[in-house]
Design brief:
This protein is an all-alpha fold. The chain has one domain. It is built from 11 helices and no strands.
């Protein structure tokens, strides 16, 4: 598995798209720090970009990488190597490459700006953690889509639809439900619905850490009461970890049973 991870990393590091992804976050970090004197405002802007762009990149890169390396995967499957080793190695190589581009691209500008000596270190680390989690989650979901769809067009369409649902449509349905049932006690429903979407869960964690829960509306106090505590933070990170592990488990299960 280490050899497969290393090969995937080496192949992706030579790709210009990985370099473009790194340079985008690098330029974004320098631009926001140049335009904003307040680090908190820069973090809010980056958060709004990360929670939408990172899942999209993870999904598209995951699907493209899976379909473009299908011939190499079939060659590996002809060798005495376990299937879970092959697909898990490729998945980790891609996820680590994208996560490294994100962390380095945003980390370098903020380190040069002096984030380590400011009071926003924890918020920045939580932002990077959420971005890494979203990368691993949506890359795993993309591999699931690739394994479930032999047709590339159908696979790309399903991947974009999945990202569109979680990033846009889900929030719209969530807000409509809150408006329709605003006369009922829907605190628990709001908490559960937020946990069922990793994008919403990551956004809430960052907003609460930045002490701007008022932006969450009238349910902000409920979120602050639950997610703002140490126990709530631990539960939230555990849920994000489950969002990573469950798609990986399903990916391995499909890979073992799939007839290539």
């Amino acid at each position: 598995m280490r050899r497969i991870i290393w090969y995937s990393l080496y192949d992706l590091l030579r790709s210009r798209w990985t370099l473009v992804y790194f340079l985008f976050y690098l330029a974004l970090g320098f631009a926001l720090l140049f335009l904003n004197n307040d680090v908190s405002k820069a973090l809010i802007t980056i958060m709004n970009i990360i929670v939408v762009l990172t899942p999209l990149i993870g999904t598209l890169f995951g699907v493209m990488f899976f379909y473009n390396s299908i011939e190499f995967t079939e060659l590996l499957l002809a060798q005495p190597i376990k299937r879970q080793t092959i697909f898990l190695g490729q998945y980790l190589g891609l996820s680590l490459s994208l996560s490294g581009s994100l962390v380095l691209g945003l980390g370098l500008p903020f380190l040069l700006y002096g984030i380590s000596s400011s009071g926003s270190v924890q918020e920045f680390l939580l932002l990077l953690t959420a971005g890494v989690f979203l990368t691993f989650i949506f890359t795993a979901l993309a591999f699931n889509i690739g394994l479930s769809n032999t047709n590339r067009i159908r696979g790309f369409g399903s991947a974009i639809l999945m990202w569109l649902f979680m990033a846009v449509i889900y929030d719209g349905l969530f807000l409509i439900a809150l408006m329709v049932f605003d006369e009922y006690p829907i605190d628990k429903f709001a908490l559960i619905a937020s946990c069922l979407n990793p994008i919403d869960l990551s956004r809430i964690l960052i907003l609460l850490k930045l002490d701007i829960s008022v932006l969450l509306g009238y349910t902000g106090a409920v979120f602050q009461q639950f997610f703002g505590t140490t126990r709530g933070m631990f539960i939230s990170l555990t849920l994000l970890m489950l969002w990573v592990l469950i798609p990986i488990w399903r990916m391995i299960r499909i890979a073992i049973r799939k007839d290539f």
